[in-house]
Amino acid sequence: MGLRGENLLGLRAVRGTRAALQGVDPVSGQSLLPAYGGATREQLDQACELAWNAWAPYRELGAAAHARLLESIAAHIEDLGEELIDRAALETALDAARLRGERARTTAQLRLFAQLAREGRHVEPRHDPALPGRTPQPRPDLRMGHMGIGPVAVFGASNFPLAFSVAGGDTASALAAGCPVVVKAHNAHPGTSELVGRAVQAAARETGMPDGVFSLLYGADEQIGAWLVAHPRIQAVGFTGSRAGGDALARIAGSRARPIPVFAEMSSVNPVFVFPGALRERAGAIASGFVQSMTLGSGQFCTKPGLLFLLGDEGTEEFLATLERQLQATRTAPLLSAGIAARYRQATQQAGARAGSRSLGAAIASDGTQAQVVVLGLREFADQPAWQEEMFGPAAVVVRGARVAELAPLLEGLAGQLTATVVVEPGDHAAARPLMRMLETLAGRLLMNGWPTGVEVCEAMVHGGPYPACSDPRFSSVGTLAIRRFLRPVCYQNMADDLLPGWLHETSSPAQAPTEQEGTPA
Amino acid sequence: MGLRGENLLGLRAVRGTRAALQGVDPVSGQSLLPAYGGATREQLDQACELAWNAWAPYRELGAAAHARLLESIAAHIEDLGEELIDRAALETALDAARLRGERARTTAQLRLFAQLAREGRHVEPRHDPALPGRTPQPRPDLRMGHMGIGPVAVFGASNFPLAFSVAGGDTASALAAGCPVVVKAHNAHPGTSELVGRAVQAAARETGMPDGVFSLLYGADEQIGAWLVAHPRIQAVGFTGSRAGGDALARIAGSRARPIPVFAEMSSVNPVFVFPGALRERAGAIASGFVQSMTLGSGQFCTKPGLLFLLGDEGTEEFLATLERQLQATRTAPLLSAGIAARYRQATQQAGARAGSRSLGAAIASDGTQAQVVVLGLREFADQPAWQEEMFGPAAVVVRGARVAELAPLLEGLAGQLTATVVVEPGDHAAARPLMRMLETLAGRLLMNGWPTGVEVCEAMVHGGPYPACSDPRFSSVGTLAIRRFLRPVCYQNMADDLLPGWLHETSSPAQAPTEQEGTPA
Questions:
Q1: Is A143 an 8 Å CB contact of chain B?
Q2: Which tens digit of pLDDT belongs to each residue from B132-180?
Q3: What ipTM score was computed for the predicted complex, to two decimals?
Q4: A116-137 per-position pLDDT tens digit
Q5: Do B456 and A517 touch (CB under 8 A)?
Q6: Is A48 annotated in the active site?
Q7: What's the order of all strands across the beta sheet hosting B262-265?
Q8: Catalytic residue positions of B?
Q9: Is the C or the N end of chain B the one with fewer CB within 10 Å?
């Protein structure tokens, strides 16, 4: 498929006439063809109007049709074959094996949401039957279910050009919820976005979807995203990216004439706590696992462990020696973009210059990126809140010589996190238990003796957490739970069957109704 | 119980030293003793710190203890007997029968949430067991459940001094979720608030709860609410009241260093659509039911039908004649407060003065309130967005001579609603069906041949809707679904049993686990 550099407005492709952008090969620094003309305000309006008009017919098509669309998208992505992998590798400097794995995750995710839609579990139907004889007042018949919230704006992330981008988790869960989607392509992988966008377009055409269930817009500056979130037809936002970006979109959404919910997954340092028994028993293995996890994908995972506490002394020297050795053996690939690389160098230079720290580093990549671990004491860490800031890339902070007893006040000041990890031996459990009770108030996912990179797409996954990990800790952006971000409950009182919506009919058989109980008078 | 005019900080009662406020009898306009000194910043800090410190022990006590607290609150409210009814009647001008009904609803609601907590359904546990042999990567063991979000700030509403106030739905659902609560008492019923607050305090003492699961603060101005929502210990907000108030709290919550979710139930005109067949068949009965519903509680229900469309001509004269007769026979009680009465008079005068309208009125109450219906044509309605604004009190707008075919563009411009109602005969269903598909995108609850006042507290209820009905359409503030506002999901990966939290242990028996399915590689 030849790339054409066009915006996708529903089933059409149109060249944008605002400032153009191009992909860049992070290895060579060379710009890549074609140029993508930024969508105009009129083109954006068209995409949003199409999405709005597609909403009702898309909803009425029902969950089986939504499932077919999702499955067709997965098949069309697979049909792109190595062309997709090659272009994504060129635009992101991620290696082909990683990108193939990410593609498998993306298509499996689309099929998981197809299955969820077909099962209809997300509708969560409830029924309180009428109690005509109840006193003092009879109870009406009440049926409830969850429907799609309306057209959703999706912002692709730089670090997962497939799984968190054009047809990633946000798009898959929104489409499964019955919501049309307007995607703002990430500027770091425009060609990859076009390939996937055209696969979605082909799937929409093949499965006979109403024109407008999907659009894909490009924009060199931040204007297009601001317009999109402010557009009256858009009813919810899914975003993965920087804290500044997520905050800006939340502000725009909150100052609309009619505010809408934003789910923004933003910033997390994913703290790891190595307990004394574990440090004593297997310091070397822990250090190896840590370096491997923090440098995976050049450290550009939302769940990169960026902060590790050594709770105890015995084993510390072995840990640090292995850490340094492993780090030096690590070959870091160039970062996703020149902007990310520049911000990374600035962040690590600032960290290295802070008082009390000692830096361990690795070989320098072609773009100037060096994997880096800063080692410091608990006092130094506690003195400077800046140590808690995410350094996006292969850098981390190790706090040595900490004591379990000192952690409570420290955790009080810790920001919200996507994950928190305890590394323990059986003898550490008693000390870890109270820490767990604090960590679960701070993070969406808690791990024992593992590393947080690698987010399973399944029923029980939570990829979220209190701010700044996410803008709303009540939701997850990975796993089947992610669909709740784009659903709202609707109740039908004394409604005749022929006025109920198809999506509630489909799932409200008596066998699926939850426990019924006596209501209380209103 | 003698009223003392104190703030309740956990288990203590302390006099505030900021500007004092007093209840007012809306009938006589007389101020009521005692005076309530406004909480100081230090007292508010204390309440929030107590709530924070109570959170972990309260959570660890578990759902059965939460249920005992809720049941004890219900019993202590009942023990207040007529003292509570008398004081509430004095402060609100609502009649004793209505207040007794509201008390029954409040205690039943507390018991419903106690039952929910005991059953543990709100935890919604999920389990993806480990798949050690999966390729390319093994799947870890993943368990998920929902825990309380943390201390919740609750703002009592003026119009339901019991059911949406100190121990109303927000407090009941937050406590059931495992969250401590700090209530800002509504200034229109400070004595009622103290009585109920002391009942909650007595219940917390009796059931051995940690000090700080509940506090009650007074403040004459808006400062106390602003401090409360901005306080770093507060993790979520529940509010029922005006759009201006809800918007202000959402802005404060969004501009915190760490933003938190706000659920604000605000403004709705609850449109009713009378289809031609129904208008022809039973115009008089519909007019009677309408007047009864819109003047219930002097029109001070969130779900008051404030806007009614007559879709057709035949029956219109009978409808209007009955409406006028019924309205004149309606004796309106004084409104809840002098401020509400003044705003009501202003809103109805402005409505009466708008071009093209004709006003029908009732007798004037002692505070100057007159039940009022403005009748106008569809053109006049469509020309002025102001007709869509809520008039809090016994006023409504009737749009006559509308056609079903004209509704689609009109609904496009309609704001979010708590409810929308269709009044139909069987012959109207075909015409109503497409309207239903539009209305369900606008409202949280859809009714057929009923009136929206009277919100059942049950499993299938939705009391919410798109802005400005609510700040977030994905939640409900009434019924068991209301608990979701104050829960967040947490996932445990490869976690040893002895490090899992009690609340997940309690509910994660295999019998309750949902369908397990193969995950996909991360």
A1: yes
A2: 999 888 999 999 999 999 999 999 999 999 999 999 999 999 999 999 9
A3: 0.96
A4: 999 999 999 999 999 999 988 8
A5: no
A6: no
A7: B12-14, B7-9, B214-217, B181-184, B152-155, B236-240, B262-265
A8: 265, 302
A9: N
